[in-house]
Amino acid sequence: MTTDQTDPPPSKLEPAVWLIGNAPVAEDRSRAIDGAEVVVRFNNAFGFGGVTGTRTTHLFLINCGGQAREWLGNALLTEGAAVRGADDILLPIHPAKDDLYRPPLTEAERHEPDAVNMADAMARMLRSAGKRVGILPPELFLKACRVIGYARPERGMAAPSTGLIALLWALENFDLPIVATGFGFDGWPGHRWVAERAFFETLRDEGRLLIHPLDQG
Q: Most CB atoms closer than 10 Å: which of 66, 102, 118, 139?
């Protein structure tokens, strides 16, 4: 008789960083992901508990815009399985990035619905649920802006994706092989997907990043 069960991760973790994007993937890589030293997920964490395993050392949660408003407005922020299972929560948009504009954003601009930075409110809610929370420095957002073609943040600009910011963070913090899966470079039109794909592929060509295509193992 057989039963459905998830294989346990190896007793010795593989020295690698896995970045788990939110594009659907069919290939089951759960064992490799759960056996990795560092596993980074984003927002609603596609495949969590299934083809991308359950290990989450760092979960990036966007802290501006409609998704953040939804989490806070419905008190859903601490209810997701990925949040509960994450070792650390990272909020990618530091409030100080609003001072990087020239001139800096006005108070009125900072209170526009999609511009409100909810880092403090999200951090309070998550910490009250016992989670460790970090807010990334504004310099990382500035670096992501440069990747997609902006010398500094601009009014009306396209936004760097959470996945891009997470990749830059991983490059700064780990001297380990980085593996990306679930990145389709498509979706919300407010990102510069062509520029982001080019950056990922440059790192791949330099041997600094392994990218698993969506349609094959």
A: 118
- According to DSSP H, which parts of 53-192 are helical? 65-73, 81-85, 107-110, 119-128, 138-147, 162-173
Contact assessment for residue 54 and residue 74, using Cβ atoms and an 8 Å cutoff: no
Q: Greatest CA span in the chain, whole angstroms?
A: 69
What is the side-by-side strand order in the sheet with 14-20?
Answer: 132-135, 88-91, 58-60, 36-42, 14-20, 178-181, 210-211
Q: What's the mean pLDDT in 37-44?
A: 96
Residues in the chain: 217
Query: H or E stretch including 133?
Result: strand 132-135
- Rounded to whole angstroms, how far apart are CA atoms 7 and 4? 10
pLDDT per position as a tens digit, 181-203: 999 999 889 999 999 999 999 99
CA distance 33 to 54: 8
pTM here is 0.92
Mean pLDDT value across residues 85-94:
98
Is there a contact between 18 and 208 (Cβ–Cβ < 8 Å)?
Answer: no
Q: What is the crossing angle of helices 162-173 and 138-147, to 10°? A: 110
